[in-house]
UniProtKB/TrEMBL annotation:
EC numbers for this chain: 6.1.1.2
Protein name: Tryptophan--tRNA ligase
Originating gene: trpS
Positions occupied by motif 'KMSKS' region: 194-198
Cited Pfam families: tRNA-synt_1b
Gene3D superfamilies: HUPs, Tyrosyl-Transfer RNA Synthetase
Reactions catalysed: tRNA(Trp) + L-tryptophan + ATP = L-tryptophyl-tRNA(Trp) + AMP + diphosphate + H(+)
Length: 331
């Protein structure tokens, strides 16, 4: 059985993009993979988080994953900082990875913008830590949204350079598993920007804890154009916001974009947004409700994460210890 590693940052409340690009895919992959799911709190602090928020967001995220169907009897769920193997391997990878490679990472450019000098060194070396997250488990498949594809290519570059520099065949090649539907969900306020849990505007995203009223309001206010829905996909070209709403509908209703358009052709956004609200509420509301129930017992969530960390440590510690020996560290 192939091993999967995937992570999500507790840098806010997970949004619909995280669900469609990652979480829903994780749930499905459990049937035929050995899964290691990680709340990457060390990645989250590459951008400042209030300690209180980070703690609450980590537990909320654990609850959302359980409510979405992550099975911690069969698979591993834990928070990154609880397993030291990640930091140990990340340091080695900081020394393997090249500045030229990091300079090409578009996520850093997007997040740092023009104010590059004022961002943390952690944000810059974020992809090296991500490579360590995956390779500490020698995971071969990584379910991610399309936005993370470049980081996985870098993971393979790091693995290859490590193997080459030390003359070993130690780290495997990693393959991205990108969901076909809604690989990239866009902001509700700007169809050219991806939906993001840390976007300053809460109106730009559907959060996985939103209730039906909040969802309805956000969809009602979502940016659109004044045209009606076309009968064919080609008619969505150049209409980023319209395309995004149709794509979200298709992904959540398990339909193709073509079928959604066939059903709603000629509709304006008033009625289409109402239909979309029903589809989103049907998918999200049960998860939000179960999350709320689970959040009432924090101790249980902490104990689930602790048990997961012990199982994660048992896999990662021997692999990272071996990598340290390869490098020449006295063990
Ligand atoms: N808009 C999106 N569409 C599809 N997939 C997405 N993912 C994130 N946004 C979208 C996928 O969710 C997984 C977890 O992401 P993450 O929390 O590790 O970091 P991120 O990609 O930076 O997500 P956010 O929401 O934008 O977080 P912030 O605002 O903190 O940076 C990944 O598999 C990602 O592809």
């Amino acid at each position: 059985m192939q091993r999967i590693f995937s992570g999500i940052q507790p840098s806010g409340i997970p949004q619909l993009g995280n669900y469609l690009g990652a979480i829903r895919n994780w749930v499905n992959l459990q049937a035929d993979h050995e899964c290691v799911f990680c709340l990457v709190d060390m990645h989250a602090i590459t951008v400042w988080q209030s300690p209180e928020d980070l703690r609450r967001q980590t537990l909320t995220q654990a609850a959302i994953l359980l409510a979405s169907g992550i099975d911690t009897e069969k698979h591993i769920l834990f928070n990154q900082s609880a397993v030291s193997a990640h930091a140990r391997l990340a340091w080695i990878f900081n020394c393997v990875s090249r500045l030229g490679w990091l300079n090409r990472m578009t996520q850093f450019k997007d997040k740092a913008g023009k104010d590059r000098e004022n961002h943390s060194a952690g944000l810059y070396v974020y992809p090296n830590l991500m490579a360590a997250d995956i390779l500490a488990y020698k995971a071969t498949r990584v379910p991610v949204g399309e936005d993370q594809k470049q980081h996985l290519e870098l993971t393979n570059d790091i693995a290859q350079k490590f193997n080459h520099d030390y003359g070993v065949e130690f780290f495997p090649t990693v393959e991205a598993v990108i969901p076909p539907a809604a690989a990239r969900v866009m902001s509700l306020r700007d169809g050219t920007k991806k939906m993001s849990k840390s976007d300053p505007s809460a109106q730009s995203r559907i959060e996985m804890t939103d209730d039906a009223d909040a969802i309805a309001l956000k969809i009602r206010r979502a940016k659109t154009d004044t045209d009606v829905l076309p009968g064919e996909e080609a008619g969505l070209e150049g209409r980023a916001e319209a395309k995004n709403l149709v794509t979200i509908y298709a992904a959540l209703a398990d339909m193709s974009v073509a079928d959604v358009l066939a059903q709603h052709q000629g509709e304006g956004f008033g009625p289409f947004k109402k239909a979309l609200t029903d589809v989103v509420v049907n998918a999200i509301a049960p998860i939000a409700q179960e999350t709320q129930r689970l959040m009432q017992n924090e101790d249980h969530l902490v104990s689930v994460l602790r048990a997961g960390a012990a199982r994660a440590h048992a896999i990662a510690d021997p692999i990272v210890t071996e990598a340290e020996k390869i490098v020449g560290f006295v063990k």
